[in-house]
């Protein structure tokens, strides 16, 4: 039985965790009986050691321009050197060549910059590290960039969010190849969350939203958090705050970086995604808890936010 070849592309300025999350994930699957077992190869532009962001050196097992197919999965890692890698025409050209020999193509974190430079993300939905997402979207307008999910799979091309999201993407590959039980055991062996669904956000609003010093903004946000099932329209929030709708929108743009409506939507969706994957509550009940008048209204809003219906998101999360 032929061992599926996993080719991981590294370059100077690579993030070591990006590489290790992938290679260790597939190695654990092998140890747990994946059949056929994966054969993992780390390749570098010249077959020489590459310097990681941390200063450590990582030795490759082959040269990028010598590797040949068939390849099961091609994975481009990220790191602070991603811009230089994407500007290297030889490296990008070899990634394009190998992509044509691969069943699946993926990037980890900012490795998406290399895939985009190769044209492999044109007209596809993709993600990258949330910190780089705005710059990435501006540089590659043909890519439908979604900065929120931990990973996105669009056909045979996949992209993951920041750093440890690489493990979530790897687990999804293992599950696809060998079933949910081996993937679950790999997750347990690596002491990680049992396969976060790809649509889960890279960052939580509730832990990462800046605590504003502006009293009106702070009061409105506190009200939203405590009343997600209530009327949270801009008119209602402005009335509660004692300001005009226009002034409230201006305050939120200045202190939060998003409109009140966008904040309400994102908070409702984050709570809904948590309830879908962590509870067995009926979808209609989750819709009511998150302030939606009907399950259908909730479904439409959730598809617009996550790209999949609530039922599919729940199934993937489990």
UniProtKB/TrEMBL annotation:
SMART domains hit by this protein: HTH_ARAC
Keyword DNA-binding: yes
Alphabetical keyword list: DNA-binding, Transcription, Transcription regulation
Top-level lineage group: Bacteria
Residue ranges of every copy of the HTH araC/xylS-type domain listed in the record: 218-316
Name of the protein: Transcriptional regulator GlxA family with amidase domain
Gene Ontology MF, one: sequence-specific DNA binding
Pfam family of the protein (one): DJ-1_PfpI
InterPro entries for the chain: Class_I_gatase-like, DJ-1/PfpI, Homeodomain-like_sf, HTH_AraC, HTH_AraC-typ_CS, INH-QAR
Lineage of the species this protein comes from: Bacteria, Bacillati, Actinomycetota, Actinomycetes, Streptosporangiales
The organism of origin for this protein: Nonomuraea thailandensis
């Amino acid at each position: 039985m032929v061992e599926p070849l996993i080719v991981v592309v590294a370059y100077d300025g690579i993030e070591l965790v990006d590489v290790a999350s992938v290679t260790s994930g597939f190695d654990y699957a092998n140890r747990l009986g994946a059949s056929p077992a994966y054969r993992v190869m780390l390749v570098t532009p010249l077959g020489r050691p590459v310097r990681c962001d941390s200063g450590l050196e990582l030795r490759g097992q082959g040269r990028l321009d010598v590797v040949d197919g068939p390849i099961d999965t091609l994975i481009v890692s990220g790191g602070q050197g991603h811009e230089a890698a994407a500007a290297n025409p030889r490296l990008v050209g070899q990634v394009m060549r190998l992509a044509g020999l691969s069943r699946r193509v993926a990037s980890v974190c900012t490795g998406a910059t290399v895939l985009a430079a190769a044209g492999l993300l044109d007209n596809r939905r993709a993600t990258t590290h949330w910190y780089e997402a705005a710059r990435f979207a501006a540089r590659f307008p043909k890519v439908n960039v979604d900065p929120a999910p931990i990973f996105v799979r669009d056909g045979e091309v996949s992209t993951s969010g920041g750093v440890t999201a690489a493990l979530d993407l790897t687990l999804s590959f293992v599950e696809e190849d060998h079933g949910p039980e081996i993937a679950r055991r790999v997750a347990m062996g690596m002491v990680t969350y049992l396969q976060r669904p790809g649509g889960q956000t890279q960052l939580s609003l509730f832990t990462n939203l800046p605590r504003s010093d502006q009293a009106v903004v702070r009061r409105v946000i506190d009200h939203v958090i405590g009343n997600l099932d209530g009327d949270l329209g801009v008119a209602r929030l402005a009335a509660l705050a004692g300001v005009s709708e226009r002034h409230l929108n201006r305050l939120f743009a200045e202190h939060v970086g998003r409109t009140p409506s966008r904040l309400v939507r994102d908070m409702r969706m984050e709570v809904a995604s948590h309830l879908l994957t962590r509870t067995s509550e009926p979808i209609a009940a989750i819709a009511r808890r998150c302030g939606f008048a009907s399950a259908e209204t909730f479904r439409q809003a959730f598809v617009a936010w996550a790209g999949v219906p609530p039922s599919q998101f729940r199934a993937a999360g489990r």
